[in-house]
Design brief:
Number of domains: 3
Largest sheet: 6 strands, antiparallel
Helix content: 25-40%
Number of strands: 14
Radius of gyration: 30 Å
Structural class: alpha+beta
Order of helices and strands: EEEEEHEHHEEEEEEEEHH
Number of helices: 5
Oligomer: single chain
Distance between the termini: 69 Å
Length: 241
């Protein structure tokens, strides 16, 4: 590895450092550090020059803003697999229905049509029931690390509620804690009383936020639940049935 030496040049602009490889000037002596404009820094450590930029500070800032999980649904994996299975079975039922008409059997066309219709209707009904039950299911809840302190008495202002779409993609609904209240519908425990205060997205796509949510009351009310227990104490929670 070649040695790097630092030279400086002066102009009307702020002082800048130009790194040269295999070049030196007699007027430059080894230095411990030079702090440059825009946060650039050149450091001499054991005659080896290193540089850091504002990107380091940006990375540290992003690390501080990483979301912290305060709740995880015990049936999160089951909910996702169940949705995928129901959609797959419906697709296979619809896709295989034309082959029934192609089979040469001594059955009237009306009977074949009734059989296909009954199979598709049954599959669609089961898929719709699973979607209705599992769509409010909350797989996890995260909050910004900036809203948490070292104590367990922290009450965040906003929650990032993770649910599943029809095709089992993750929907992230950001909602203020003040907009959450207990729900009365079966298979739900929370509802958003002001949908205009919530935002939702699937990846980078903005979607309609979920207004009905289900979190396990027994998990949230546990003595060791931490932050989510404080949230439930503030908002209340329905029993889901």
């Amino acid at each position: 590895m070649s040695m790097l030496r630092v030279t400086t040049c002066f102009s009307y602009s702020p002082v800048k450092a130009i790194l040269h490889t295999r070049s030196s000037l007699p007027c430059i002596k080894p230095i411990s550090a030079i702090v440059l404009a825009n946060g650039w820094k050149v450091v001499n450590n054991n005659k080896r020059y290193h540089y850091t930029t504002q990107v380091d500070n940006l990375n540290n800032k992003n690390a501080d803003e990483e979301p912290v999980t305060i709740y995880t649904g015990p049936l999160a994996n089951v909910a996702k697999k169940l949705k995928l299975f129901s959609i797959t079975s419906l697709g296979l039922g619809v896709g295989a229905s034309p082959f029934i008409f192609a089979v040469d059997v001594p059955v009237p066309f009306v009977a074949k049509a009734a059989l296909v219709g009954a199979a598709i209707a049954t599959s669609a009904a089961s898929t719709g029931l699973i979607q209705w039950v599992m769509s409010p299911y909350v797989t996890k809840i995260t909050v910004s690390s900036n809203e948490l302190s070292a104590t367990e008495d922290t009450l965040p202002k906003k929650l990032n509620v993770h649910t599943l779409s029809f095709t089992a993609k993750e929907i992230i609904t950001t909602v203020p804690v003040a907009a959450i209240q207990p729900a009365t519908r079966i298979f739900t425990s929370w509802m958003i009383n002001d949908p205009s205060a919530a935002t939702a997205r699937i990846g980078d796509k903005i979607v309609k936020p979920r207004t009905l949510l289900y979190v396990h009351p027994e998990v949230c009310e546990d003595e060791e639940a931490g932050v989510i227990k404080n949230v439930v104490n503030k908002t209340g929670i329905g029993k889901g049935f």
